[in-house]
Amino acid sequence: MSHPQTLTWRPLGPPDLPAIEALHRRAIGAAGPDVVKPEGPDFFPGILGGRGKAVGAFEGDHLIAYGILQHVLPDADDPRPLLGLPDSVLRVKLAGASVEPEARGRGLQRALIEERVALARATFKDTPILIYATSAPANVASWSNLMAANFTVRAVKLYYGGYPRYVMVHESVTQDLDGSEVILDPADLDGQRHFLAQGWRGSKMVRDQGGVRIAYTAPRPALRAAAAAERP
């Protein structure tokens, strides 16, 4: 996917902190923590200070979108055990993105996802990595954009004070699926956990008479325990 036209893309640094924080506040608006995590005062300075990287899209001098890539992460934010991955695999997380409300609908969320996946691969090209993200089941725009960029739901966990989040992992190769599929409502957390525990993966958004739902697909048995790490 090419970048939306007329924009300037560049890495963000400490001088961009005020613009990032202001855009974050505008973008989340009145959304609650069940949908979007409001970042604390130390988060963005920590990312710009070496705990990760940030990329931004500018229209003229105005920052209209940013994405965060984080590689220094707390122990509690570690999906490797549930995926059967060793500690030697580096966690690299798409740790949030914001788009100016007036700029939505221009493909910027999808572009930010793809930009950060490419950045993770380039930055850690000699290291096995796990590229992942978390997304609220209620945040359809977030998880549907991630699915369109080859992320699949691999678990449902409680994050950020007890709010459910999908753990979504970037699949570096096309998955060999056995053809089985079940369509589930994002609000049906127990149903999704049931299939996830058997190795199924939430792979695409479905719009039908039931509304917006998720198609879960079953990998072939031989692949269900396969490592999710992207190899150099």
TrEMBL record:
InterPro entries, sorted: Acyl_CoA_acyltransferase, GNAT_dom
Domain N-acetyltransferase: 7-178
Gene Ontology MF: a single term: acyltransferase activity, transferring groups other than amino-acyl groups
Entries under PROSITE patterns matching the protein: GNAT (PS51186)
Domain of life the protein comes from: Bacteria
Residues annotated as transmembrane: none
The protein, known as: N-acetyltransferase domain-containing protein
Organism of origin: Xanthobacter tagetidis
